Amino acid sequence: MANDIRSKTILVIDDMSAVRSAMRHVLAAMGAMKVDLAANGDEAIRRMESVPYEVVLCDYNLGEGRDGMQVLEEAKQRHLIGLNTVFIMITGESSLAMVLGVVEYRPDEYLIKPITRQVLEERLEPIVARKVVMAEIERAVRDGDLTKAVAMAGAQLQAHPTHALDLLRTRAELLLRLGQFEAAGESFEAAGRIRETYWVKLGRGQVRYYAGDYPGASAIFQTLIAENKLNTEAYDWLARAHQATGNHEAAKEALSNAAQISPRSIQRAQALGTLSLRVGDTATAELAYRNAVRLGRFSVLRDPSDNAHLSRVFMERGNTKEATRIVKEARKQFAGDNKATLVLAVAEAAAYQQLGLGDAAKKAMAEATTAYKASGSDLPADLAMEFAKLCSANGNKEQAAAIMADTVNRHVEDTTLMEKAKEAYTTMGMSESGEQLISTMWEKVAAANNEGVRLVREGRLNEAIVLLEKAAREMPRNATINMNAARVLLLVMEKLGRRADLLARAKEYLDRIPAAQGAHDDKFQRLRGAWIKLAGQPLS
Fold it and tell me: Is there a domain that residue 60 lies in?
């Protein structure tokens, strides 16, 4: 162990100087020679931005600012740590809620204070040995070559059979990212033959989910929950499976259960808020968005839309005072952020309109309009429709119609959302034209997609390309059209080999999908994985 730890770059994060000093002495006694210290989450992130630490020992409670979970969250999100980094969470608290919250972010280990040299050596040694095996795989991942990383994981399986479970898990998760679901399933099954772990069972459900077998996936996730009702990840996947079949109420229930067990996941809070608004449950939406806003204060995943949605919920529940307060606070927090300016100006204008403060509402509307034009209309669908109604109420029917047309163009396949769009058109006195636009757009999208699918099935790929690229030019904001145009280009390259021009065009269509939408769209993730795989192949 002494030889291993001596060469490692180590970061100790703790808000108490005495603890930092004690940990440095313990590590020095173990042979560590390169130890840096950070007194809080901000300092820790700054250090990780400049040094690729191999071992991070992080206290859970770091005083004001980011806590240990948020440090780990940001480090993973921004790739400041990787597969070969040892991240150990340290805490003086052992409550179930805290432990579950920490485990969800998958640190390599968590330790309860006080930490002795013997305890640290016993826990650190096997993790360091395991991480050495992951070093080359991590380099390939950092270079964006996931195909190479998969191959390396396979090679390491032969060279290091004692680490087979970890390598099979890594390989399976990389294959999922690449969209190679059958191969991922084989890796999960190979791991299951060694040990039938929780993550193996979860992986089987994920593979079924990505294959479109939503009932089969749901059955697996429900079995996992029955085996252990604290399996929050199984609840999250069950919610995704319910959403895929349009059962939003069941999806909300699954997320609510997970949030009650482990309330510190900001992404779960955001998803629960969105679902609750979709099914009209403003009480749950308020709780979810309150939690998202609270957690987002020091999180890299914070989103001004959470504040705007919370303001909207307050308005719907008649609490306009709280609605305006939350927006004002958010403006300070997100100062200088263009997206925040847009979503918060819309929320503020709606609140002032409801309060009858005409001048203040007009001022916020003017700001929102300027931001909308500058941002390329980067608004969540529900806020876009709210903005359109405000434009209409303030006499700008032309802009209201343009905003609604853009929203319909993007989301016409979402039947629940289109029902809300029809309601918005009725409110604005555009019922007839709105319904006609939705119907026409639906027919265009359906016709292009159906014909494209038919041509692909018949092997007439060049004709499918011409058809879908034409549709993408005519409907450049529609996610399904853009993804299908990218898909047919990728299919051609899978058959005939990589071509730089087709690869660039596929990327252009995928780049049109808003980041927030793509992050939660499984089809997009599969296509992105296929693009990454092809990008690593030689040109034809």
Answer: yes
Cβ proximity of 304 and 290 under 8 Å = no
Q: What CATH number does residue 17 fall under?
A: 3.40.50.2300
Burial grade of 162 (CB within 10 A; 0-12, 13-18, 19 or more) = exposed
**Distance from C-alpha of 202 to C-alpha of 449, rounded to nearest angstrom:** 32
Of 135, 160, 182, which residue constitutes the final position of a domain? 135
- Strands 55-59 and 9-13, by their bridges, are parallel
Q: What number of other Cβ atoms are within 10 A of residue 330's Cβ?
A: 25
Q: 3-class DSSP state for residue 66?
A: coil
**Amino acid identity for residue 89 in this structure:** M
Side chain identity at 185, as an amino acid letter?
A: G
Whole-number Å distance between alpha carbons of 227 and 429: 53
Rounded Cα gap, residues 345 and 363, in angstroms: 9
Structural domain harbouring 36: 1-135
Reported pTM: 0.81
CA distances (Å), 88 to each of 22, 24, 108, 190, in order? 16, 15, 6, 28
pLDDT tens digits, the chain, 540 residues: what are they? 545 778 899 999 999 999 999 999 999 999 888 999 999 999 999 999 999 999 999 998 898 888 898 999 899 888 888 888 999 999 877 666 666 666 777 888 888 888 888 989 888 888 888 888 888 898 888 877 888 899 999 999 999 999 999 999 999 999 988 778 899 999 999 999 999 999 999 999 999 998 889 999 999 999 999 999 988 999 999 999 999 888 999 999 999 999 998 888 899 999 999 999 989 999 999 999 999 999 998 888 899 999 999 999 998 888 888 998 999 999 999 988 888 998 999 998 888 888 888 888 889 998 988 888 887 666 788 888 989 998 998 888 998 999 999 889 888 888 888 999 999 999 999 999 999 999 999 998 889 888 988 888 888 888 989 999 998 888 888 888 899 899 889 988 888 888 889 999 999 999 888 776 776 677 787 788 788 878 765 544
Closest listed residue to residue 424, CA positions, set 395, 394, 382: 382
Q: Which of 100, 117, 135 corresponds to the end of one domain?
A: 135
Q: How far apart are CA 499 and CA 132, in angstroms?
A: 36
Phi/psi for 38 (5° steps) reads -135, 135
Contact 137, 150 (CB under 8 A): no
Domain count for the chain: 2
**Would 23 be classed as within a structural domain?**
yes
In-domain check, residue 343:
no
Q: How many CA atoms lie within 13 A of 292 on its CB side?
A: 27
Is-contact 290 310, C-beta < 8 A?
yes
Cβ(178)–Cβ(532) below 8 Å: yes
Question: What 8-state DSSP symbol labels residue 498?
Answer: B
80-115 residues labelled b (16+ CB within 10 A) or e (exposed): bbbbbbbbbbbbeeeeeebbbbbebbebbebbeeeb
452 within domain boundaries: no
- Asked if residues 378 and 368 have their Cβ atoms less than 8 Å apart, the reply is no
Q: Is the peptide bond before 52 cis (omega within 30 degrees of 0)?
A: no
